[in-house]
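SEVERITY: medium
COMPONENT: batch folding queue
REPORTER: lab tech (J.R.)

DESCRIPTION
The queue accepted two submissions in a row. Attaching both inputs and their returned structure tokens so the on-call engineer can compare them side by side.

ATTACHMENT 1
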Amino acid sequence: MSQTNLPFKDGQTVEVRSFEHGYRGAWFRCKIVRIYIVEETLYYSLKYLDYEKEEIHEQQVFQRFEDEEKEWIMVRPSYPSVRKIEADQKPLDVARGSWKVGDLVDWHKDDCYWSGTVVALKKNEPLQVELYPPPRGEGATYNALRKDLRPSLEWSLEDGWTLPSAVSLHSDM
């Protein structure tokens, strides 16, 4: 993938995925400080926006997790700020709040977003979110407040923002 095919530029705010143990599947808000290539590999220098004491982080834009064949894009645009976005020529309603078991969500915890599935909920109680299994996530189940959730969306160079499917979570995403 060449640098010219990516829609990102210096100074842009993006979300960056982690494969680091303990943070697998988490998305962090960052600003691109510099874009560069070393030995035909694309890197971004990133400043974490929610971790002010962190040094500039050098991120390889496409990575493999452990022994996988698939290369994953580690950067995506900032989450859409509008209530509806266009995907596959259909509007996606990204309104928050009316959750049900099986919904795919991003949970805001520790100044980053963790992707998972709502697995249990009761009226007037925190709901339970199970994080995606490795390599997409850490795989644990947590209590989460409704106000800390947003609908989970996937982003790709080919399709832009789309709704993820439960089947894709265990395959090649």
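ATTACHMENT 2
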Amino acid sequence: MNRYFNPWLGVVFGFTGTMASKASGDNRELVNEQAIANMYAAMRSEMNQLYSKITELEMEVSEHSLVIGAIQPLDPSRRCYRMVGGVLVERTIKEVLPAVQRNKAGLEEVIARLNEALEKKKNEIAEFELKHKIKIRRADTEAKEDSNLKEGSAQGVLVGPASE
């Protein structure tokens, strides 16, 4: 089995001879390995984009919750201002509150759909890793674990003089 390390991803790719025939030469095999590495990087990038979009929308939902919590106990006839398409519009709380609640519900639906897409993408990546025998190398975390073990064995408790 041949191995190919992609330093940008920190990933080791293990390939069998089925990816490219030995008769075609190492050059074609390297191209196929690089194509697989590029596909893997694109899949991981899509997954990271889904994560960031979900996080962004969750922040908006929390902002909507704060607004709802702030204006709900107030008098429904009280004036408030709402930003619509970059324009500040004067409305009453009884007009704004249902709209903010609908927006929050819509955002929550979008987040649910994005979470489903994220799970599909994770499964797709896992299948791709199995199919192409991709293993993720995490040298940084292994080094940290080793240093933590050494530190843990040397740690102690300092006890000061007893005060009376």
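NOTES FROM REPORTER
Residues 40 and 125 are 7 Å apart (CA to CA).
No errors were logged for either attachment.
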